[in-house]
Amino acid sequence: MARIRKSETSKTTSIIWYIALYIRLSREDGNDVSVSVDNQLKELNTYLENFEGMYEVVDTYIDDGYTGTDSERENFQRMLGDVKAKRVNCVIVRDPSRLSRNYLEAGMYMEQLFVQLNVRFISLSLPALDSYKNPEAMNSIAVPIQNVINDDFCRQTSQKIRGVFNMKRSRGEFIGAFAPYGYSKSPEDKNSLIVDDEATDIVKKIFQWFVYEGMSKNGIVKKLNALGILNPTAYKNSKGLKYHCRTGNNNDGMWSSRTITSILCNEVYIGNMVQGRQRIKSYKVHEAIQVPQEEWFIVENTHESIIGKETFDKAQELQKRDTRTAPKSKTLTLFAGFLKCADCGKAMSRTGAKGKNYYVCRTNRDKSKTACTKHSIREDVLQDAVLIAIQKQIDLVENMSQIIEEINTLPDLNNKSDRLEKALRTKQTELSKNNTVLDSLYVDWKTGDITQEQFRRMKAKFETDAERIKASIQNIQEEIKLMEKGVTNDNPLFKKFLDYKNVKELDRNLLVCLIDMIYVHEDKHITIKFNFADTYMRVIEFIETNKEQMETNPKRKAIVHEIPIDRPVA
Description:
Elements: E1 5-6, E2 16-25, H1 37-49, E3 54-64, H2 74-84, E4 90-93, H3 96-99, H4 103-116, E5 120-123, E6 129-130, H5 135-138, H6 142-170, E7 183-185, E8 193-195, H7 197-212, H8 217-226, H9 232-238, H10 257-265, E9 273-275, E10 278-280, E11 288-290, E12 297-299, H11 309-319, E13 339-341, E14 348-353, E15 356-361, H12 362-366, E16 377-378, H13 379-407, H14 418-446, H15 452-484, H16 492-498, H17 508-514, E17 515-520, E18 526-530, H18 533-545, H19 547-551, E19 566-569
Parallel strand pairs: 2-3, 2-4, 4-5, 13-17
Antiparallel strand pairs: 1-3, 5-6, 7-8, 9-12, 10-11, 14-15, 15-16, 17-18, 18-19
């Protein structure tokens, strides 16, 4: 402990001042050399050379890299602890902004806490204060005014920094302190991401296990933990990065299903920069809040992808499904998330009896036998029926592909849709009638036919209806534009189905690619709703529109079939 010193110029006094020298520096201070830690320390020590009275420097408390609006500074709190424990009775700072840039907190410390605890407060400048030698100055209006100026400086700085960050986000520049798991920051450009080969391999395995091998998220968690693979937080720490997970610092290095979900949903792995998912409430309240997805900054193709978009999209689709694993199983069953009762619409539940597996309506099993019937179907029978349906659908799509190829050779190709044109006219008429009624409401109100309350309520209803009709019109117009472009064999409908032309057995990847949902009826029939339903309808309409001309084509090879979107299968 430093010995008690007595200045040569000091007056006789019995008070011994136990001094805390407090120093703070943050990024908001910019390149101002005068407020550097070293210079602050020099100023405070120079002041002590002419300090009047006996004193002892208890400690020098330094917070480097902390904003003045955050009172949860490590050494600031340590100093307050010493003040409250009466180990310190004098606090010296370069200026009040070092203590705090939050004018409410600065006032609370200077005008209340220090006064209550009989602590002398000394500020060397802006303004110069000494609560012991000149207590009246502490009550001067200059003190709160300067605290407000210090506070406003932070507000302006925060706005400028946020503006710069948003500009960088909009350009696809990475501004985070730590790169997402699977990437690292480029040594040449800290705003660019490069692939981290070691972690990238784990990301690829997670998508492979989940999408193509049918593993559940919990199954993936158990496998990664069993292999001794560090979770993202522990991995970054092992690389020497001082990373702390936002959910807590007590990280045990183990994976969790929440982490797996975060990886599976992150577009960064398909090469898109996704930022701004959280923001700080204000420059004073540093609590992070979630930002609506429509306000995120998403810039495509900013860096090397780790996962293909097709695989990523499959992962998103699979996560929407109601999936459960069997007890003690790490993998999902083949039909998990793909089966629903055709009557009540609830998911089907898998059960076993006499060495066979069955699917039954969950409403009937779990809620009430009278709420819905059993809808029981044996798993092996279901597999055979679905495989046959898929094979037939592939044959039909192949025939459609041949028809499209022939249609596109016709001299007078028709890309018009009578159905869409009629639907557009109907919606436009509906909108016109709605607007006419809306216009007449004002007159009815002014003439006293309806009350003001009725006018407001009816006006809100018709305005809502108008927005709905406008949205429908826009969708129809977009469909018409797609029809006008025609249909070719590059259509994803053909590519997806024909990729499985010679399929002989089912797997989850096949179901994800081709099937939206399978509905099980009470009579053990099933209805399969295939993916690409909108595209399917567009192709069928294109064929129907050109059917008559194609059938008169002497070189016709393909036969036009009537092909439903939902296929009932016995």
